[in-house]
Design brief:
two-stranded antiparallel ribbon, binds zinc ion, 11 helices, about 280 residues, mainly alpha, about 60% helix
């Protein structure tokens, strides 16, 4: 048997193996052909088609291109493989009937070159997650884990019960009421301070009265609770006490009054907290 007819036989075996899906055998046959005829472009292209690794395919196709740059089959193969490379494919699933585990190659999905999604709040930050509720893209700064997943600031706010959703208007009302009461209530009590024991006690009770009374009125008017409301009221207590002290004593304030007023303010804030929390 001549070398030529031998190669024809191998080539024939190779295409038969390809047809029945025996890719291992087919690759071996085509390699055998190429070992004999290293410039066999047809064998190169056929082998390339059987190789799942895109880089390896590319190597064979490039060889074929060097040999026959104008061959339409070479050009077609080159174009097709170029497409795989642009898609980011590393491995291509070759139809096979091979049962060998080692030969089973799966397509490695390409890493999609997805466009960068920006945070809905921070335009310069890349969004890494989406809000579980509204699907808005969020950056790492915006994501605060919640019992329902990751929520954006808007959705998180919506989940806060209505009575805890206070605005600056409500804070102004809370602060205003407390300032007024904390200014007025101490005035008569200061005059009772000279009464031993009862005087200071009444003064401290005044603090509690300021706290609970302003909390009640605030709730009636705004129906809002929460930490912000307590803070606004607390600031009002401090401000009112300061005004009352200036009105009553000016700069001649005693250490005892200062101490009693401090305790009184603390009691007022404690009462505010208890009602407005
Ligand atoms: Zn949301
Ligand atoms: Zn953000």
């Amino acid at each position: 048997m001549s070398d030529g007819s031998m190669i024809e036989l191998i080539r024939d075996a190779a295409s038969k193996a390809t047809a029945r899906g025996d890719t291992i055998a087919a690759r071996n046959y085509y390699r055998a052909v190429l070992a004999q005829q290293p410039h066999d472009v047809d064998a190169m292209l056929a082998l390339a088609q059987l190789i799942p690794v895109v880089n390896e395919r590319q190597r064979l196709i490039a060889q074929a291109q060097v040999l026959e740059p104008d061959n339409p089959a070479v050009l077609a193969a080159a174009t097709e493989n170029e497409k795989h490379i642009t898609q980011g494919l590393k491995i291509i699933l070759v139809p096979t009937n091979d049962t060998q585990q080692s030969n089973r190659l799966d397509v490695i999905p390409p890493v999609p070159a997805k466009p960068m999604v920006m945070c809905a709040v921070h335009a310069t930050m890349e969004a890494t997650l989406r809000c579980t509720s509204c699907d808005r893209p969020m950056c790492i700064r915006c994501t605060i884990p919640n019992e329902v997943g990751q929520l954006c600031s808007t959705c998180r706010y919506k989940r806060i019960p209505e009575r805890y959703r206070s605005t600056i208007q409500h804070w102004m009302i809370a602060g205003g009421i407390t300032t007024a009461l904390a200014t007025i209530i101490p005035i008569p009590l200061v005059f009772l301070l000279s009464i031993p024991f009862i005087g200071p006690m009444l003064y401290l009770a005044g603090g509690m009265l300021i706290g609970s009374l302003s909390a009640q009125i605030t709730l009636k008017l705004t129906a809002k609770r929460g930490r912000a409301m307590v803070m606004a009221s607390g600031i009002g207590v401090g401000l009112g006490a300061l005004i009352a002290m200036i009105i009553l004593f000016g700069s001649h304030i005693s250490l005892m009054i200062l101490l009693l007023t401090g305790i009184s303010i603390a009691l007022a804030i404690r009462n505010l907290q208890q009602t407005l929390h």
